[in-house]
Automatic annotation (TrEMBL):
CDD domains xref list: M20_CPDG2
Keyword annotations: Hydrolase, Metal-binding
Keyword match Hydrolase: yes
Xref: InterPro entries: Bact_exopeptidase_dim_dom (IPR036264), Pept_M20_glutamate_carboxypep (IPR017150), Peptidase_M20 (IPR002933), Peptidase_M20_dimer (IPR011650), Peptidase_M20A (IPR050072)
Protein name per the record: M20 family metallopeptidase
Superkingdom of the source species: Bacteria
Active-site residue numbers: 81, 143
Pfam families associated with the record: M20_dimer, Peptidase_M20
Amino acid sequence: MPQTQIGSSERLLQELRTWVEHETPTTDPVAVNGLIDKAQAELAAVGAALERIPGRDGYGDTLVARTPGEGAPVVVAGHLDTVWDHGTLATSMPWKVDGAKAHGPGIYDMKAGSFFAFHSVREILRQKVRTKRPIILLLTPDEEVGSPTSRAPIERAAAGARAVLIPEPAGAGGACVTARKGVGRFVMKVHGVSAHAGGNWQDGRSAVVALARKILEIHALTDLPGGTTTNVAPIWGGTRPNVVPPEAGCEIDFRVADIPAGERIERLIHAMAGDDGNGIRIEVEGGMNRPPMVETPDITALYDMARGIAARNGYDLPKQHRGGGSDGNFTAAIGVPTLDGLGCTGAGAHAPFEHILWQDLAPRCATLCELLETIE
């Protein structure tokens, strides 16, 4: 158990509810900043050294809190934004505790885990618990859209850090994460030539047909044994049934197990751009936005430490490699040992049945807190 008194799962759930009932869609910086305000006030009251980085490009602020100490810090980072729009609480996903499950938008991904990080740092400072290293806590506004504004502050905080802890949701069986796939996104736009679909069909060049051919090529790049997947969605194109469509487009998601595979996919999809000389022109923008998180011996050692702490807190902590990306991808890629998936157990990230197993709040939070206290 950590030296810090974390409190019971019931007590944690009571405060976590206030976070969940404060809706924070990524696209509403005012709403996200409202929750940042609450966290900032609580951390200021216990003496954290605070830096608030103003939001930009339509996203909220990033809060950085530091505890006293010397040497390379331990960084813990969680995002406050969710995929859920305003009004979700009042309509499809009201706060509800149903037996062992607590429901609400964003509770699993990842308000419970971000609350773990905030609560641990607040209580370490409030209770004046001495940690082996200083702690840097980041609460960020835009992870759900790829961390376009918070990536740089995360990487700055992690540069030279001893370790990074990411309390994203636990996986199946309560697993934490020691590796993640890299993630990339493209936007493809196809320009054709419009014509009357009956009287002048031969004069048109269908952007939709050209896009359909490219979609099949992109789909064929999937290599499941090698860990590469591609997905095209959404797609758009055309105006009316009787007009040969001059415009079409799509978004492309790809996941890769390592950087060479990502570079290969980037090269192949960018090579699809150009003019075919017959009226079709293709534009491609994008690339890899989260590098792969590869399990290293240092990450394995950090996991072994966490598993031992978890055992003392009464549960097993398996590990997994996960296909989805997180901010841990960034920190692992710059060579800092990173352990991810340290949040609460549950299920339903981005789904209407999203929930946590609330009785696991205290033991899971205790493990994160003890890691913050004892990493040497």
